[in-house]
Amino acid sequence: PKPLATRIAFVTGAASGIGKAIATRLAAEGACVVVADLDLAKAQAAAAELGSTDVAVGLAANVADEAAVQAALREAVLAFGGVDIVVNNAGLSLSKSLFDTTEADWDLQHDVMAKGSFLVAKNAARILVDQKLGGDIVYISSKNSVFAGPNNIAYSATKADQAHQVRLLAAELGEHGIKVNGINPDGVVRGSGIFASGWGANRAKTYGIEEQDLGKFYAQRTLLKREVLPEHVANAVYALCTSDFSHTTGLHVPVDAGVAQA
Ligand code: NAD
């Protein structure tokens, strides 16, 4: 692949949390970064933290809306001349039990994560294929794509959908030199803004603990006894996009301090 310092990254949901950490790491390695998120002002503010508009731009793009995705990708190409790395990170977790999950909940989770990541991957892959320079597509899936737990049925189903998208796209895009990999984080509660959306409160209730103890709770159930931070997920995205992983596609990398094996 092209060296990271010459590459252009399109990161969805990058105004906060894990996406912001990914955008920050890729920018620190010299890549030009497009911060795509729901709210234009927040996306632009996050991009401004990364540098001038020569190296980072913020765009509004609801990933569940194909016209918006196409417009954002067009703007990205206009700004930087192409796209080399695509990170499907945008998401939300309603964290509800089976009987609390409504049809609207199911549709929202699937619109953003199953459909949204497909729309981004499909439209970005068109650009990558036409450029004939290979590229990387990385999905931020979840431990929940593989492991079952309580109170997360709609969310987890979309994560399993994303995991299979990774395998299907790896198969379809491999001949174009495009690698498609997934990352399965777990328990990233600090610095991500997810407490505000109710995710933390619901999870804490499920485990019968206080919300502020969630980070420690997750750390204790890992093999490494470590809290997983957004930066740890960003490190894995960076690694997958370097030449060290030039022959790896269709892989899912756990970034969970070992909880999935515990
Ligand atoms: P977050 O809420 O801090 O960030 C998610 C971002 O996605 C927000 O900026 C939000 O505005 C954006 N977004 C939501 N809907 C969107 C849409 N339709 N279009 C564009 N942007 C949209 O949450 P986070 O924890 O950083 O989550 C990022 C990703 O990581 C999600 O896909 C999530 O499922 C996944 N993940 C998180 C954890 C964790 O423990 N936090 C674990 C596994 C997987």
Summary tags:
15% strand; alpha/beta; 262 residues; binds nicotinamide-adenine-dinucleotide; Rossmann fold; 7 strands
Describe the overall structure.
The mean pLDDT is 93. The protein starts with 7 loop residues before the first strand and ends in a 7-residue tail after the last strand. Helix 4 (103-131) links the parallel strand 4 and strand 5 (135-140). It has 262 residues and is of the alpha/beta class. The chain is built from eight helices and seven strands. 44% of the residues lie in helices and 15% in strands. It has a seven-stranded parallel β-sheet, with helices on both faces. The protein binds nicotinamide-adenine-dinucleotide. Residues 12-13, 15-19, 37-38, 61-64, 89-93, 112, 116, 140, 142, 185-188, 192-194, 197 line the site of nicotinamide-adenine-dinucleotide. Nicotinamide-adenine-dinucleotide binds at residues 12-13, 15-19, 37-38, 61-64, 89-93, 112, 116, 140, 142, 185-188, 192-194, 197.
